[in-house]
């Protein structure tokens, strides 16, 4: 639908393009919506211009006055509507070779640059400056008088100087060219990306102004009248640049030094990998391309198949509904959309609808296995991500669909990375190339990991490690250096934690590993390292009855693990009953640590007359490590001593008595025997457990 321009902003810029005089202006089409339009005013009259029409590709309709030939000479139509934004306030222009570069100021404090080729086709917008405070630029913008390498903008009470390009940030010929900046070119003699006026007596390699190219090299295939396929490579460089070219894997040389010939019969069905090398003096550019076999692109005629055919450099035959090789006489259709739009109207699917994107906030490293929920998603093939001024959107293929109800469906995909923070529009692609929906995701700073708590673990693994840092909600998993195992991350009281895997110790008896946070297809390394130590050594235990409860003290060799009571699990089995020992505390010393816990509700514990309480087994678990005591060695030793002490003492006394008897003289011996016969007994003391007695008799 055509839109009448209702208001004109304060300033416009004229530029001569050969015999044409171009005029660029900012216009308001609707409240809150502005556009930049370029007009050819070469033939304009001096009479008042009554109105404008924004031409969106089709011819603008004639008004009633135009139809009646009353004001035909007063109607001015734009040569192109080149930019649309909600807050443009000013515009100015520069010419560089055959390029026209427009600069826009916005109400939000942005200075935006857009380059246009000879056909007024725009390149990608670039933000040259952002005030960060949302202050509006004043309408007038001026260029530096010498070489116009900077632009001056007025904002508030200050004048700001901004370079029109930053060529020096590009370090290679390929990067310099790929910037698609008409001000920047590769100065061959200096091996630097420079402004043209800074590169004298040297080739200056830049983008040609004849058309907007997206790649520094183009590769084309043409089938001759026979069965040969001629592949030709060409660099997209400005005129007059000397270069050499080489193609690998050729069957035979082609008609030029940048071409080669293949037999269509030997052309692989899966395609042919080819390496193209272009040399500009000392600079070498290499590109690996996959040439598709046009005869192998087969299937039901659809918009998607047609686009695949055209994108491969082949020709789609509308008469035969098939993909064929391009020939020298093939019709030169300008875009694949022109050829394939015939199929868009006959596709049978319902328009997809996005209800939600999860997550909708990610780090600049992206996210794996994101989910879109919506309706009618079965026809979606890709997910597209695009900024407001991004002419090179990123696309991610759909990994899986789930749900078959029109009220609730979902699809899984990966969110790609990007270099800067900010919001991006998300839409879903259908086979006809249309993108549906207008969801939003926000890119934020990457996560950081500043601390591990604790910084140690044991060899058997299973210890929970807490992560401290920023933006940790973006972390998908954790891994240790030297391992490919992805460890699941979960939250405990809002803090991200993970459980350590088992580790192998080195010859020193320990081992250090780096902890890596997995974010998208990138890993972020924590600042602190994790140290593996041997498993804790629990040596013995004792039990004590305390009222109706049982206290257990477990001895453990001192180590560097710094165990917490919450990490130790103690289970007790007594007869047919099992009990959990509730942790009380851990008492530490230089040699031995004591783990103290208490069991309540033990059956018949009140009937035990001894201070200690007998148990069948005691199991101590610490993460992935456990030790089982069948009975306490120290308790068994104590019970044996209590039981056998009186017997041992009696035996010792008997031995002592017999020894003394043998050592006495006969007279004394007779007296002793007489005493024995008189039943004078030697009594033993009574023990604390039972009363024992013994006598030493002579024969």
From TrEMBL:
It is found in: Membrane. Keywords: Disulfide bond, Glycoprotein, Membrane, Transmembrane, Transmembrane helix. InterPro entries: Ig-like_fold, Plexin, Plexin_repeat, PSI, Semap_dom_sf, WD40/YVTN_repeat-like_dom_sf. GO terms for biological process: axon guidance; negative regulation of cell adhesion; positive regulation of axonogenesis; regulation of cell migration; regulation of cell shape. The keyword Transmembrane helix applies. It comes from the Eukaryota. GO terms for molecular function: semaphorin receptor activity. The chain crosses the membrane at residues 636-658. This is PSI domain-containing protein.
């Amino acid at each position: 639908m055509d839109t009448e321009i209702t208001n004109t902003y304060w300033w416009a810029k004229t530029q001569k393009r050969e015999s044409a005089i171009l005029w660029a202006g900012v216009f308001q089409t609707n409240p809150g919506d502005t556009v930049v339009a370029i007009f050819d005013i070469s033939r304009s009259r001096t009479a008042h211009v009554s109105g404008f029409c924004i031409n969106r590709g089709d011819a603008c309709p004639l008004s009633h006055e135009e139809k009646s030939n009353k004001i035909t000479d007063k109607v001015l139509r734009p040569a192109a509507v080149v930019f649309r934004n909600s807050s443009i306030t000013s515009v100015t222009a520069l010419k560089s070779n055959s390029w026209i570069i427009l600069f826009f100021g916005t109400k939000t404090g942005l200075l935006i640059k857009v380059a246009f080729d000879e056909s007024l086709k725009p390149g990608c917008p670039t933000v040259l400056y952002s005030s960060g405070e949302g202050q509006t630029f004043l309408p007038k913008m001026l260029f530096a008088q010498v070489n116009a390498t900077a632009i001056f903008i007025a904002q508030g009470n200050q004048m700001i100087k901004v370079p029109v390009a930053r060529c020096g940030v590009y370090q290679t010929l390929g990067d310099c060219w790929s910037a698609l900046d008409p001000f920047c070119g590769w100065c061959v003699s200096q091996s630097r990306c420079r402004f043209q006026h800074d590169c004298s007596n040297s080739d200056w390699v830049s983008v040609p102004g004849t058309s907007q190219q997206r790649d520094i090299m183009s590769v084309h295939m043409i089938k001759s009248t026979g069965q040969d396929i001629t592949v030709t490579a060409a660099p997209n460089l400005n005129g007059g640049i000397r270069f050499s070219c080489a193609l690998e894997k050729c069957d035979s040389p082609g008609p030029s030094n940048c071409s080669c010939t293949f037999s269509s019969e030997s052309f692989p069905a899966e395609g042919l990998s080819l390496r193209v090398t272009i040399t500009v003096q000392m600079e070498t550019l290499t590109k690996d391309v996959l040439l598709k076999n046009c005869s192998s692109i087969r299937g039901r005629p659809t918009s998607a198949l047609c686009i695949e055919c055209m994108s491969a450099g082949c020709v789609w035959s509308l008469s035969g509904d098939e993909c064929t090789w391009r020939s020298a006489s093939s019709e030169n259709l300008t875009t694949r959309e022109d050829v394939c739009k015939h199929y868009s109207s006959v596709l049978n699917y319902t328009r997809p609808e996005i209800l939600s994107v999860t997550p909708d906030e990610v780090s600049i490293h992206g996210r794996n296995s994101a989910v879109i929920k919506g309706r009618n998603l079965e026809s979606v093939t890709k997910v597209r991500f695009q900024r407001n001024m991004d002419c090179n959107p990123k696309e991610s293929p759909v990994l899986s669909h789930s749900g078959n109800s029109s009220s609730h469906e979902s699809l899984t995909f990966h969110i790609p990375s990007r270099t800067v923070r900010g919001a991006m529009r998300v839409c879903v692609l259908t086979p006809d190339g249309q993108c549906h929906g207008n969801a939003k995701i926000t890119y934020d700073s990457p996560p950081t990991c500043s601390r591990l708590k604790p910084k140690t673990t044991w060899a058997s693994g299973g210890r929970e490690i807490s992560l401290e840092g920023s933006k940790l909600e973006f972390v998908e998993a954790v891994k240790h250096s030297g391992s490919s195992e992805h460890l699941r991350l979960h939250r405990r009281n809002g803090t991200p934690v993970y459980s350590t895997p088992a580790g192998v110790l080195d010859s020193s008896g320990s081992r250090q590993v780096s902890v890596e946070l997995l974010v998208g297809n990138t890993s972020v390394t924590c600042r602190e390292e994790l140290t593996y130590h041997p498993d804790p050594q629990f040596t013995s235990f004792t039990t004590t009855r305390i009222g109706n409860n049982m206290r257990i003290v477990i001895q453990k060799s001192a180590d560097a693990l710094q165990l917490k009571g919450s990490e130790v699990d103690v289970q007790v089995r007594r007869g047919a009953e099992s009990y959990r020992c509730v942790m009380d505390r851990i008492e530490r010393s230089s040699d031995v640590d004591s783990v103290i816990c208490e069991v309540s509700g033990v059956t018949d514990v009140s009937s035990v007359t001894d201070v200690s309480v007998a148990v069948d087994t005691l199991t101590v678990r610490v993460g992935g490590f456990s030790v089982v005591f069948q009975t306490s060695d120290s308790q068994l030793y104590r019970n044996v001593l209590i039981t056998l002490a009186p017997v041992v003492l009696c035996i010792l006394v008997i031995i002592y008595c017999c020894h003394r008897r043998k050592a006495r003289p006969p007279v004394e011996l007779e007296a002793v025997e007489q005493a024995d016969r008189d039943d004078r007994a030697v009594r033993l003391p009574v023990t604390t457990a039972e009363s024992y007695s013994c006598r030493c008799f002579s024969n």
